[in-house]
Design goal:
The structure holds 3 protein chains of 3 kinds.
Chain A lengths: L1 H19 L16 E3 L4 H27 L3 H26 L2 E7 L6 H13 L7 H24 L2 H9 L9 E2 L16 E6 L11 E5 L19 E5 L11 E3 L11 E3 L6 E3 L5 E4 L8 E2 L1 E3 L5 E3 L16
Antiparallel strand pairs in A: 1-2, 3-4, 4-5, 5-6, 6-11, 7-8, 8-9, 9-10, 12-13
Chain B lengths: L8 H11 L2 H8 L2 E2 L7 H20 L8 E3 L11 E3 H11 L4 H28 L8 H23 L4 H15 L5 H9 L9 H31 L13 E6 H26 L5 H4 L18 H9 L5 E3 L2 E4 L2 H27 L16 H20 L2 H8 L3 H33 L7 E3 L2 E3 L5 E3 L3 E3 L3
Antiparallel strand pairs in B: 1-4, 2-3, 5-6, 7-10, 8-9
Chain C lengths: L1 H19 L10 H11 L1 H4 L17 H10 L21 H12 L16 H11 L1 H4 L6 E3 L2 E3 L7 H10 L14 H13 L16 H23 L5
Helix pairs in contact in C: 2-5, 4-5, 4-8, 6-9, 8-9
The chains are: A alpha+beta, B mainly alpha, C mainly alpha.
């Protein structure tokens, strides 16, 4: 049996080789061979199968309705509805392949290029210009009108101009603003030990304003390195930065604080979207990742009640950069 | 003089009498569809679109496109008493309290993922068989446009729900919008009606874009796409009786009509089964979006994974001088990269005509991928490029499962992004050449040495030949 | 004869008594035995005097029973190499030995093992606290996550006590939350939420990991599209 099959395959291969040669690829088209055919399956078994599938589909659909009324569990509903659809699909596909006459037809393609008509159509189009003498004037004037309309459509965007910069750079933080947590309780310095990590907002401000959320962390004061003008911004080792990542606007919600520094990494604020990493001990400088500028820093001060307050606005516009960011 | 009722002839006569449609009907019945299985891929997309519209209409009736805040009082305990937008709360209600609501929502979302996957596979089939060649360049352009719009539509759809993950995605979209050099701030504040997270007008805007504007454009383009195919007739592979001037296959009636209808139900079945049995976008677990919250492992849906990969692997370049940020970093990964990809896709038919094949003739017969090794190699290289970036977007989860350090992964992917595409292209080119030479089926053929027994009793190996199996 | 039987019985009773004691939890360990275990297993990095060895291990004075219990019960300590990232593993010591080590460490001063009562009535508060403070590293469904420099583990195996210990201690790269920043009620609420995520409410069917779009995309391609392509190959014609 296998030998016979092998011989048959070899025969086919030989025939192909002889007829087609060591072809470069495409089998040569054989326009003379007519591939059309019509084969009637006349298969009662297949018809029975189709009928069975259709009835099965109906039963599954009934089950769906029952489940919908009795216990609308998503899984049961999906299973029964999906099953009904699958059985209908199977019925139709079996019918298309095993029940109805299997026909292969040849159809001539529509002729797409009509050389005579193309020329005449162009003539028809061109005839619209008959008798028009000031062609260039009309074209220029029409072009000017179109450009003008385009400008009318576009110019209102530009008028957002200067106010865009104000809106994008704004933040509710001001000198003296009290820092509060998500439940509007003030941040007391004695509640937060070294290694603490808190999300804070300006008291009374809209928390969803992009300039509002800041992340406050408490570091070892000896590790903090700030430029001279910012030395007072980190009382008792507390530093605060905008929580909105300067790369693409996600909340910088990962704070890396080593329990034992010598065997692990230094403190870092990390954004979980694209892993921009900022150094909280060094003005929020970027140490890894795609962010193009440091996190804006919020100057802090400790008031008489040992609460944290802002000592000024953010050092830079919050969030992702745009044209107006220096 | 009684007339016998004929259930088939009567309706046909009714239609012909009023519309003169009998000749059209005959022509339609005999309209021929080539039969290759890969020609069914576009229909997966088409039927997924139908399911999207059907399920989408249903769920839109329950959804409230508003960022107005209310207190959640539904049945999910971990959100009891929490304040969230109406968009989120109404979707929670649809998922928990409306019978079959979650089934509809999940089917809709699975349909979106499969819709775009089917388009991608279909585009690959069209590309690797050269079906975009004259006279089908216009349909190629329409198709690439539909791919881009489908990706945008999918993004808008899952962002509507205002959950934590999609909210993070909207923030990133905002960052990409404002990164447009010069005018980004204006464009973004126009779309969002202010700075992110936007004004009260933003949510209805998102909604109208997703349920009306984009579906209308997509439906129109789909109609055009199909009309052009019908006018030009589908392409076909070479074979017995097939020429550049004809189409060989199954006529519409009865074979193809039944088959395509069955195919629609098959697509619907897969989507509904997924919709009921496999959870997707469990927004109750993610919770509502707040700008000061984010979760690790946040990802866009798969069809935007290539962009998160680009954003993550991009080095921290930000062109800042003369008091302005000329090119913010998200521009490179979020806008430049996809623009280059789509630009190449759009231009390919003409790039190929000019530089690869110098062939401006009309083609109705398709190439097998091996028949144009240069096109296939370039396509494989391009696909590899995008795929490497795509995988880079999931680097953090790779780390969690395997344990490879994240920083090292990023460097690996940056290098692989330059090295892998030419390597794959070269290998593909060589494979095409080899397949051309040996005429083998790439998967099913046997290639080896045949050994013949000589009359003297020994064995001698025949010269190396491939045996092509049918 | 009788004396021998009595001796045997006493011996048996004694054996029973000593073998039964390790299975009782809260009996309190023996600091002396703990010290012996410490010297054998921990002094290499933390020093014979438990004052730490620079670049190897920190001073354990003030770490307390809380830290010892956390690290030993989760198997994170002993650590093979000082620079390794401590990860959850099978504990290297038996429960009794851990009791002893904890007692020894407690004798060096520091916070005790915290008492936790997961509060399901406050689970909504716990969810929100987790979302703001923990989800960035541990993922919103506590499936674990990544940061530059380390891995934040998945929390399915964490007991309520270990959750509280980690919150207070800030192990490895985790920040720490004092009892005034996150009072015990808040920790109880967070613990309730984390425990609920062991078996998340997957109402929509198979949860595929509860981490979102990556497995969802894989299902769309490898199950949805693959199934459809399989059917297409059945109903369409094969190759040219």
């Amino acid at each position: 049996m296998i030998a016979l099959l092998g011989r048959l395959l070899a025969l086919i291969a030989i025939v192909r080789r002889v007829l087609l040669g060591r072809g470069r690829g495409l089998p040569a088209p054989e326009p003379e061979a007519d591939p059309s055919e019509r084969r009637v399956p006349a298969d009662a078994r297949a018809e029975a199968i189709v009928a069975g599938l259709a009835l099965g589909a109906a039963a599954a659909a009934v089950a769906f309705v029952v489940f919908y009324v009795v216990d609308a569990d998503t899984r049961l509903l999906g299973l029964t509805a999906g099953l009904a659809l699958a059985l209908v699909a199977a019925a139709l596909l079996v019918a298309s392949l095993r029940v109805v006459p299997q026909v292969t037809e040849v159809e001539e393609r529509a002729q797409l290029l009509h050389p005579d008509e193309t020329g005449r159509a162009a003539e028809d189009a061109r005839s619209a210009g008959e008798g028009i003498s000031r062609r260039r004037l009309l074209t220029a004037a029409g072009g000017a009108a179109a450009a003008g309309l385009g400008a009318v459509a576009v110019v209102p965007i530009a008028s957002l101009g200067p106010s865009v910069a104000d809106r994008l750079a704004a933040s509710p933080w001001r000198r003296g603003r009290l820092l509060v947590d998500e439940e509007d309780r003030p941040l007391r310095v004695d509640d937060l030990e070294t290694g603490a990590f808190v999300t804070a907002f300006p008291q009374g401000a809209d928390k969803r304003d992009l300039g509002s959320p800041v992340v406050v962390v408490r570091l070892d004061p000896r590790t903090i390195q700030l430029r001279p003008s910012r030395r007072s911004w980190a009382p008792l080792g507390f530093v605060a930065y905008s929580k909105i990542c300067t790369h693409a606007g996600c909340a910088v919600s990962e704070f890396r604080y080593p329990l034992y520094q010598p065997t692990s990494k230094a403190p870092g604020l990390v954004c979980p979207c694209h892993y921009s990493t900022f150094d909280p001990a060094s003005e929020g400088d970027v140490t890894f990742g795609p962010a193009g500028r440091p996190l804006p820093q919020l100057p802090l001060a400790v008031d008489g009640a040992r609460q944290l307050r802002a000592a000024g606005p953010l050092s830079a516009p919050p969030g992702p950069a745009w044209w107006g960011v220096k | 003089m009684s007339r016998r009722r004929d259930p088939v002839a009567d309706p046909v006569r009714v239609v012909d009498e009023r519309l003169g449609a009998a000749p059209l009907l005959r022509k339609a019945f005999h309209y021929v569809f080539p039969d290759h299985w890969s020609f069914l891929l576009g229909e997966i997309a088409l039927y997924s679109f139908v399911i999207l519209v059907a399920t989408g209409t249903y769920i839109a009736l329950f959804f409230e496109p508003s960022s107005h805040e209310s207190v959640y009082h539904g049945s999910y305990a971990p959100l009891q008493g929490h304040v969230a937008s109406d968009a989120y709360v109404s979707t929670m209600r649809l998922s928990f309290e409306v019978p079959a609501g979650l089934l509809m929502r999940q089917t809709h979302h699975w349909a979106a993922l499969v819709f775009i996957a089917a388009i991608v596979v279909h585009v690959m089939r069209v590309f690797f068989t050269g079906a975009f060649r004259r006279p089908r360049e216009l349909n190629w352009v329409i198709g690439v446009t539909m791919l881009a719009l489908a990706v945008l539509e999918g993004f808008l759809g899952y962002s509507l729900v205002d959950d934590l993950m999609s909210g993070m995605g909207l923030a990133i979209a905002y960052a990409v919008a404002i990164s447009i050099p010069g005018v980004g701030g204006q464009v973004a504040t126009l779309l969002w009606d202010g700075r992110f997270p936007g004004s009260d007008h933003f949510w209805p805007r998102l909604f109208i874009g997703h349920v009306f504007l984009l579906p209308a454009v997509l439906a129109t383009l789909i109609g055009l796409h199909l009309a052009i195919i019908m006018r030009q007739h589908h392409t076909q592979f070479p074979g017995r009786g097939r020429t550049e001037g004809n189409v060989v296959g199954t006529p519409l009636w009865p074979g193809y009509a039944l088959r395509t209808l069955g195919w629609f139900f098959a697509v619907a079945a897969v989507l509904v089964l997924l919709g009921g049995l496999v959870q997707i976008n469990p927004i109750w677990i993610w919770g509502p979006y707040e700008p000061w919250q984010s979760t690790n492992g946040a990802q866009p849906d798969w069809f935007l994974g290539w962009l998160i990969g680009a954003l993550r692997t991009m080095p921290p370049l930000e062109a800042r001088f003369a008091g302005h940020t000329w090119i913010p970093n998200p521009f490179f990964g979020g806008l430049l990269f996809p623009s280059v990809c789509f630009g190449l896709l759009y231009l390919w038919p003409w790039l190929e005509q000019r530089f690869v094949t110098r062939d401006r003739r009309r083609h109705e017969l398709l190439d097998r991928p091996r028949d144009n090794p240069l096109r296939t190699a370039i396509g494989a290289g391009f696909f590899t490029w995008v795929t490497v970036v795509f995988i880079a977007g999931a680097a953090d989860r790779i780390l969690v499962t395997i344990g490879f350090p994240y920083e090292g992964q990023i460097w690996f992917f940056r290098i692989a992004d330059f090295v892998a595409p030419p390597v794959v292209a070269l290998l593909t080119y060589a494979a095409c050449r080899e397949l051309q030479r040996s005429e083998l089926h790439p998967l099913r053929a046997f290639a080896g040495r045949r050994v013949r027994r000589t009359a003297a009793g020994g064995f001698v190996a025949e010269p190396e030949r491939g045996v092509a199996r049918e | 004869m009788k004396a021998l039987a009595l001796l045997a019985a006493t011996a048996a009773l004694l054996a029973l008594a000593t073998s039964a004691s390790p299975s009782r939890a809260q009996r309190g360990g023996d600091p002396a035995r703990g010290r012996a275990l410490y010297v054998a297993g921990c002094a290499r990095c933390h020093g014979d005097d438990a004052r730490g060895i620079p670049t190897r291990g920190p001073d354990l004075h003030g770490a307390g029973a809380l830290a010892a219990d956390f690290y030993l019960r989760t198997g994170r300590m002993p650590l093979a190499e000082p620079r390794d990232e401590p990860v959850r593993a099978k504990p290297a010591y038996s429960s009794a030995e851990i009791e002893d080590l904890v007692a020894y460490l407690a004798s060096l001063g520091g916070p005790p093992v915290p008492a936790v009562r997961p509060d399901t009535t406050a689970i909504a508060r716990g969810r929100n606290l987790f979302a703001t403070n923990c989800a960035g590293c541990h993922q919103i469904a506590a499936r674990g996550g990544v940061l530059t420099g380390g891995i934040a583990p998945a929390l399915e195996q964490a007991t309520p006590t270990q959750i509280a210990e980690a919150i207070r201690l800030g192990p490895y790269l985790m920040p720490r939350f004092s009892a005034r920043e996150l009072p015990p009620e808040d920790v109880d609420a967070i613990a309730a939420y984390v425990l609920s995520m062991r078996d998340p409410p997957n109402r929509g069917g198979w949860g595929i990991g509860d981490i979102g779009p990556i497995p969802e995309g894989m299902v769309a391609w490898l199950i949805g599209l693959a199934a459809l392509i399989g059917v297409a190959r059945l109903i369409g014609e094969p190759g040219p």
